[in-house]
Design a protein that fits this description.
The chain has helices at 36-53, 59-79, 86-102, 110-121, 123-133. It is an all-alpha fold and 146 residues long. It has a domain at 35-133. Helix 1 (36-53) packs across helix 3, helix 1 crosses helix 4 (110-121) and helix 2 runs parallel beside helix 5. It is globular and about 35 Å long.
């Protein structure tokens, strides 16, 4: 059975968090492991919620979320056809955080629900998910997302 999700307006905030720059043809991940840029955006949103709304809570999960994002950053830098630097990713991260903050519902909106779902699955599950996602070197793409 195919899993279908609806993207609500506040989840559209994830799109600008993609490190891709400029106009390019939409690419689709065919590895079976998932779209790295999509998950990068989701993890970024969850990390922002952790920093803004759950500071000091569940250190094991928040540390693993940061570690998973660091691993994704390395994967994106290494596997992108177009050069992407750590500074590029930090800039996108900062832009995304600003957008989530300005939405006014960072602690109660869709990003908060994503944080809750990831956190309830636990740090070990997050580490396993990330390891599986990054197990095949490939171009990091945004689609399919959710």
């Amino acid at each position: 059975m195919r899993k279908v999700s609806i993207i609500t307006p506040s989840l559209m905030l994830l799109q600008p968090m993609s490190p891709a720059i400029g106009d390019e043809v939409v690419q689709i991940d065919k590895s079976g492991k998932g779209a790295v840029l999509c998950m990068w955006g989701i993890y970024q949103a969850a990390s922002a919620v952790g920093l803004e709304c759950h500071k000091g809570e569940d250190a094991a999960f928040q540390n693993e979320l940061k570690r998973s994002l660091d691993r994704m950053d390395d994967f994106i830098i290494k596997n992108s056809k177009r050069p992407v630097s750590k500074a590029d990713l930090e800039s996108r991260r900062s832009e995304g955080l600003q957008q989530l903050r300005s939405s006014g519902n960072i602690c109660i909106g869709d990003a908060a629900k994503i944080y809750s779902a990831l956190q309830s699955a636990g740090a070990m599950n997050l580490e396993k998910q990330t390891t599986d996602l990054l197990s095949i070197p490939r171009e990091p793409v945004m689609n399919p997302c959710l």
